[in-house]
Design brief:
246 residues, ABC_ATPase_HisP-typ, binds magnesium ion, binds adenosine-5'-diphosphate, nucleotide-binding, Rossmann fold, ATP hydrolysis activity, alpha/beta, four-stranded antiparallel β-sheet, 9 helices, six-stranded mixed β-sheet
């Protein structure tokens, strides 16, 4: 595998909601196996950026190429692209009336990626991977927040995505559960998953990110290695933000 293969290429992305210009001019490439952490104040456009990548939002202008496919082109089969992009949100959005295993097998079976039997086998492997093999038959409301989020990650992985997008996956969790979710993400990174992660967990960013991207006001203000951004930020807005969160 070519480690410098570009998985996500965003060029001059703009996104408006009515008159509100949320993303003003974003250009960024993310390579295979890279872990990019997006930092920035609330309202800076981080979620909107992630949502544009898998077309949960239509872009106002610019181009987004995922795995060589132009997701901003209306002729592209966006569902095919989405099958390769797992997304994990702050709120886990598990189906409450389905068991943990059913939550995980639903999409691969519905989308005919796997048979029920294959999906269950894979689902059990994924549950073991996130440390929840004993929870297959339970319902989401019987799980802690950290366990729910680990199920949500397993559910996303069930489609065998080669890109994972995380939008503040630990922000809704009690502090004692943050670590177990970050550990699952750390292992995914170690296994070579291409990841874009919005988080305020600076420790995770420092240890796991290949690159930190600091966003403010709909722009990328600066980006670099964790060392560069966390220890030697250049821009006043980055310094100001880090002073508040560190
Ligand atoms: P962040 O994730 O960095 O906190 P968001 O991308 O969620 O920022 O939001 C950026 C801005 O876009 C905010 O001002 C927010 O209110 C606005 N916004 C986000 N989604 C919508 C929407 N669907 N309609 C209108 N405004 C939105
Ligand atoms: Mg957000």
């Amino acid at each position: 595998m070519d480690s410098s293969k570009v998985k996500i290429q965003v060029t001059n992305l703009k996104k408006n909601f009515g008159k509100l210009e949320v993303l003003k001019d974003i250009s960024i490439s993310i390579c295979e196996g890279e872990v990019v952490v997006l930092l920035g104040p609330s309202g800076s456009g981080k979620s909107t950026f992630l949502r544009c990548v898998n077309q949960l939002e239509t872009v106002t202008a610019g181009k987004i190429i995922v795995d060589g496919m132009d997701v901003t082109d209306k002729h592209t089969d966006i569902n095919k692209v989405r099958e390769n992009i797992g997304m994990v949100f702050q709120h886990f959005n598990l189906f409450p009336h389905m068991t943990v295993l059913k939550n995980i097998t639903l999409a691969p079976v519905e989308l005919k990626k796997l048979t029920q039997e294959q999906a269950e086998k894979k689902g059990m492997e994924l549950l073991a991977r996130v440390g929840l093999a004993d929870k297959a038959g339970t319902y989401p409301n019987q799980l802690s927040g950290g366990q729910k989020q680990r199920v949500a990650i397993a559910r996303a992985l069930a489609m065998s995505p080669d890109i994972m997008l995380f939008d503040e996956p630990t922000s809704a969790l009690d502090p004692e559960m943050v670590g177990e979710v970050l550990e699952v993400m750390r292992e995914l990174a170690r296994d070579g998953m291409t990841m874009a992660v919005v988080t305020h967990e600076i420790g995770f960013a420092r240890e796991v990110a290949n690159r930190i991207v600091f966003m403010d006001g709909g722009y990328i203000v600066e980006q670099g290695t964790p060392e560069e951004i966390l220890k030697h930020p250049k821009e006043a807005r980055t310094i100001d933000f880090l002073n508040k969160v560190l």
